[in-house]
């Protein structure tokens, strides 16, 4: 059924797309923990290595469990092809290394996952690729940043932690006119809630570490798009080696079976929490695109069926008040990770954004009163009650 996935709905694809069965006819997707594969004869090995006959060779570039993960994710994103990587950062780095060359130019939203900044500004720069940083939500800034050598537009929407929204269709149009590739990091919403390729993006990038696994077990990544664009990225992964382990691919493959149910439940709880926070006197601001008061609420609703499970908010009283909320929680996990079934809370200014200068933090809107909650699958009443403790303590 991986041959014509379009005729099936998302829930069907999530549990069946990409399924391959071995001669044992196992019902559940098998985990092929093997580094290599054997041949019946010297001639068969020669044909397979010469690409004259399909087959599995070596798990850095071909493994049936990895193939199933790639095909299933491609089906969910509505993509022709997908290549899996060891982590989300490997997916972003492999996209640049596979598609760009020295002298090329990237335009990226400023509000991207923190590690992307040194990847583009330091490592890519070392190889002669320059990056211009622009506002996520200001389409004119993107348009004005285009140069003749612009090859890649990169964004994450909604952004983390402040929930800025990029207009995917508008940026796709800018990329098309510039003859550049437009890649969207779809980690926060996943194909269960937002499908950037349908809105005109060329590539979708994932940290599968987050919601595709969804249970905080493994690190993994992937890039989806046309076969023509994925081919050179796959070529880089195959040659340079940031490949996914079959075990991690299997975890994410099975994790995706419950993706829509989890994303909808976690998004619904997050919307409830966002409304609850917005109604509290101790809270100065709430950043969640699902709230009607969010400045890009209408665009967010056009692009995605729900706004995901990350909400951030500013408490009055700065760092002291924010830390009081963190230290008062009894159930919620104090950790910077997100995309888990367990709710997490973090103070971005002193954790995820601690290495950024005060000046840059101020420019990015990461105040000392800001807290980020990534909502899991616990009862929402328990989550609110846990949050209430530290808010009341003021
Ligand atoms: C975590 C994350 C990444 C990086 O993924 P890793 O798997 O940690 O390498 C990239 N983008 C977003 C939006 C993320 O949340």
Question: How would you sum up this structure, described in words?
Answer:
The chain has helices spanning 10-16, 42-49, 64-77, 88-99, 116-126, 139-145, 168-178, 190-193, 227-240, 246-255, 259-278, 297-303, 318-328, 358-364, 380-392, and strands spanning 81-85, 105-109, 130-134, 150-156, 181-185, 203-207, 221-225, 283-287, 310-315, 333-334, 344-346, 370-374. It is globular. The chain has two domains: 5-257, Aspartate Aminotransferase, domain 2 (3-Layer(aba) Sandwich), CATH 3.40.640.10; 259-391, Aspartate Aminotransferase, domain 1. α3 (64-77) runs parallel beside α10 (246-255), α4 (88-99) crosses α9 and α13 packs across α15 (380-392). The chain contains 15 helices and twelve strands. The mean pLDDT is 95. β2, α5 and β3 form a beta-alpha-beta unit. It binds pyridoxal-5'-phosphate (PLP).
Stated plainly, the CATH topology of the largest domain is called: Aspartate Aminotransferase, domain 2
Oligomeric description of these chains: single chain
Could you say what the CATH architecture of the largest domain is?
3-Layer(aba) Sandwich
Principal-axes shape call: globular
What is the helical fraction, as a range of percent? 25-40%
Rounded mean pLDDT is 95
CATH C-level category of the largest domain: Alpha Beta
State the low-pLDDT regions, or none: none
Broad structural category:
alpha/beta
- Kindly report the name of the CATH homologous superfamily of the largest domain: Type I PLP-dependent aspartate aminotransferase-like (Major domain)
Q: Give the percentage of residues in beta strands.
A: 5-15%
